[in-house]
Design a protein that fits this description.
Chain lengths: 587, 587
């Protein structure tokens, strides 16, 4: 029997409850104690008429967060509490045992409306767990993981544990390293992802793999990043996107159904990377609201605005967003949005409103009367709308408009928080140009397959080659990323040569992995879905710490355990490792 | 459609199969190719009468382990192969595509009877996966994990991921350390177990936790040990053994049922640690065969054997095993068993046989005729049995008899490999005496609860105090270990004082954890089951590498990836770490 179970149907039953003293009220003649466990709160009444004197007296002395066990009879409450499921009954205590006393906690447990500094909450994570949403979130997270495992098991995917002690590779982010005691001057690396291992499993003939796995990246943290994160990692052989996407879609559908009772309807939308960037300025658009980016470069040429003209003549573009109902913004309010775009190098936002009289304000004065209808038509402006326009270099401009669009979506309340808009973004570029090093780089890794329609561009226009890489996006967040991999050795060589890699560099950087691909590699593809991010979306938080049992703080510290911490000199000696200024100090 | 699917019912169907070229035979007029995938092998026939000439010619040139896709019609085979499920049919190929060529593998895939050196198999793990039992084992392992998760989820246990980047603690085995880049001279440790985190979850109010988790210990390896291992970790609040054991038993029952179709029948046997040691000389007895240790110290006094008499008079014991049917052993064969006991400091085994004429051979001559019946009765000797006896210090003697018993069990074929004998060993000692440091130590950790019946011995005879710790054993292997934890602060203080720990030592060694226990700790207990060992028992191997996808070798190296490996100086610099002789070299 738990503290969340009892209802009026139990009246008359003798029960035993255990839990924490959540609140207690000493009314003199009797003592009321709210007993709490993971499942709920039940009121217990200590009344000298029904319980031995010692019990009644003991109840008076209970402190907050004492752990007790109570036996008694379920009775109807005189004054019901309709806010909690057990609020119609209470326990008339016959006996009570203190299982464990408690010191006064550093913050109140019973009142979780009080704002407690995050550092204190992290240090006493176990007390914070007794309040608020951490435990319900962990339960939802468990449920999501169970759904993933059931769904993928039904599809004959096999969960395989890949090593924690892995090999450091120069690709990707910074590795966490682990010195080897047996082989001094040698290090393991914690896995940034099981990418190579899962592809190796495909080479080994296990055609459907998955794993819910902890990965580590030693990067500087943000509110949505932790040094260790969790992904739902998948790979399958002898398949293409048409085989993988429905499996992932069903997985996501089931997670949302089980965890949030939200019914998504696969197949999900798909959009090419190119189209996505053009329409939303980003490869992870929030599709819960419209407001697409519209091009007006051609119209801009016809205006008398020097600013727009100059931008166009120097090779830039002019694009904008129609802010529905934006005409109610004051000039000052519009100018406040400039702070969103200045970080991208834009001095300001050009704007105009459609009023009953036509386009007004801002740059309207540069637009001839004859031209106005074309602008209105292009942006589908109605009376009361406001156009916001940027002019300049295309890629910066798109990034800025993406940010502006997200901000406007919030400010104009265009986003229904109960809505979920999943999207596949496909056909990512295969290469990107590394300006600094003056060479071509893989957008993800060199094992991503080029789009088969673009093979003839590999020599003539590599930067224009699309890949078979894809992202999975929900509500403006990237949830997952993956690709069809190259399984043909000839094509793999071609890609290496476009990247300008020598045999030696290939061996150094990808060594054993390239060797493995030589022995008969099946066509295969995969994806990694971010579990933490998925749970964040399910519960609607922007703080990744909310979805992890024992998170690190902004400086990668566990404030509860004190990790990282100093260790004994003897431990380091065994590892053949020296730290600190000792080498300098010797001089 | 997979290479394991097709049966005579499919005859006439057009199918597409993909897989690896397992074997091929060129008969001139036609070519037969066995195509293999995870699910099975199917024979494909290339005959110029049914397939275009180019396809037929292409088939001739297929090398081993090429990856191909074949389309064709299912037909009955003229000469069926009854050894494989698809052996009644074959595919008459209409078309064929080479998806990926393959270099000649370093060892044959199709013939897995050839002995390949383990190093080579580990280096080319992905090729070894295409032969033999690795993939079926990984599939069984997945099945076992799924059973665990389903069973525990049904019992409202919540799977919670605990940190990989944890805190180094001086307890237990050697830690793997991870230098912190953000906090130089500080280190994370990889978890040896999530012990403290799971107890903290109980303090936080999550009353039922589990996790299938990778743990790491930097110890020298044996054939049944890896630097990283996997455990099924559990903890629950407001419960005792009577609550936990049935849950674990049902878990184990379901795993054996699902993975091996073996039906174990809970409740499992229980035996106290004390009884276990007396009867089998070990806390992890193999109960698949009898042959218990029997005491004959009293009888030994009555013999004229100087050896036995001396052992007894110097405080030792005399105990032995009745080897059923052992009388057929020659003196030489019996003496060969001495090598089992010499490592424990015994010079030899005393023995005698029961023949038709009575006790004969070995020490029989020291036993008077009147005494013989007592020996025969004590050891329940029948004609044809052989008694093996050791005399000396009890604890060494019991260890030696355990080893001798295991060896005899094998040699006399007493062990039915299809039989599983689970056992709970309870009431482990709470303390042990550290001879070197001259002080009392916890048998496991100082948070294990003493047996409540033995509390009054804590002062008078601490070494005699039983704990509420328990092991779970199957067939002579420890599968799991756990205990009821202390939740009472007074009792916890008492234990610390018996251990002679000062407040400062307590803070240094257990710091945050002891603090957490102050704020209202519920009664709780838990267990950790070794997943790797469990799978080893399920498939009947002694080599832990057989049950892990990517194992390390004896020197903690991953021969496939080359981990651990050298890293760039720049990486170490960022971490503030120096390796090797550089500090010495500066002088």
């Amino acid at each position: 029997m738990t503290c969340g179970d009892l209802r009026p149907t139990h009246v008359g039953q003798k029960v035993t409850l255990s839990g924490w003293v959540h609140r207690s009220r000493n009314l003199g003649a009797m003592v009321f104690v709210d007993v709490r466990d993971r499942y709920g709160i039940t009121q217990v009444m200590f009344d000298p008429r029904f319980s031995p004197d010692s019990i009644y007296k003991g109840a008076k002395e209970l402190g907050h967060e004492y752990v007790i066990r109570v036996e008694g009879e379920v009775v109807l409450r005189e004054s019901p509490n309709h806010k909690i499921p057990t609020g119609l009954i209470e326990i008339q205590a016959h006996s009570m045992e203190v299982l464990s006393e408690a010191c006064v906690p550093p913050f109140a447990i019973a009142d979780d409306t009080i704002d407690v500094h995050e550092d204190l909450r992290l240090r006493y994570r176990y007390l914070d767990m007794r309040r608020g949403d951490i435990v319900p979130t962990l339960i939802m997270r468990h449920k999501a993981m169970q759904v993933v495992r059931s769904a993928l098991t039904e599809e004959e995917f096999i969960e395989v544990s890949t090593p924690v002690l892995s090999k450091s590779t120069p690709e990707g982010s910074r590795d966490y390293l682990v010195p080897s005691r047996v082989h001094h001057e040698h290090f393991y690396a914690l896995p940034q992802s099981p990418q190579m291992f899962k592809q190796i499993l495909m080479v080994g003939g296990l055609d459907k793999y998955f794993q819910i796995v902890s990965c580590c990246r030693d990067e500087d943290l943000r509110s949505d990043r932790q040094p260790e994160f969790h992904q739902i990692d998948m790979e399958m052989s002898f398949a293409t996107q048409e085989g993988l996407f429905p499996i992932v879609e069903d997985l996501i559908r089931r997670i949302f159904h089980e965890c949030r009772a939200v019914d998504l309807a696969p197949p999900f939308r798909r959009m090419s990377h190119r189209e996505c960037i053009e329409r939303y300025g980003t490869d992870k658009p929030d599709l819960r609201f419209e407001m697409e980016i519209v091009d007006a470069t051609d119209l801009a040429k016809e205006t008398s605005s020097a600013l727009l003209n100059e931008a166009v003549s120097s090779g830039g573009v002019v694009r904008g967003l129609n802010v529905k109902g934006g005409a109610r913004l004051s000039r000052k309010e519009i100018e406040a949005y400039q702070q969103v775009v200045v970080q991208f190098g834009f001095k300001g936002i050009a704007w105009m409103k459609r009023q009953d009289e036509g386009l007004q304000g801002g740059i309207a004065k540069y637009i001839g009367c004859n031209e106005q209808p074309r602008w209105i038509e292009r942006f589908e402006m109605e009376v009361g709308d406001c156009l916001m326009i940027l002019a300049g270099e295309k890629s910066r401009l798109l990034k800025a408009l993406d940010q502006l669009r997200r901000r406007l979506g919030k400010d104009f309340d265009l986003i229904d928080p109960s809505r979920y808009e999943p999207l596949w973004v496909t056909d990512f570029p295969l290469f990107m140009w590394n300006e600094e090093e003056g060479r071509m780089e893989s957008e993800t890794h060199p094992f991503t397959s080029p789009h088969l329609d673009d093979l003839d561009l590999l020599d003539s226009n590599p930067i224009g080659v699309r890949s078979m890489g894809y992202d999975f996006v929900i509500n403006g967040y990237e949830i997952g990323s993956g690709s069809q991999r190259i399984h043909d050795r000839g094509l793999q060589k071609k890609i290496f040569s476009v990247l300008g890699l020598t045999e030696e560099e290939i061996a150094n950087r990808f060594g054993f992995f390239v060797e493995a691909l030589k022995f008969g590699t099946p066509p295969h593809l995969g994806i990694a879905l971010g579990l933490d991010r998925l749970i964040m979306i399910l519960i609607g938080t922007e703080n990744v710490k909310d979805v992890i049992a024992f998170p690190k703080n902004h400086w990668a510290q566990d404030l509860m355990t004190g990790a990282p911490s100093e260790v004994y000199e003897a431990q380091l000696k065994e590892l053949g490792v020296t730290v600190g200024e000792s080498t300098v100090g010797q001089n």
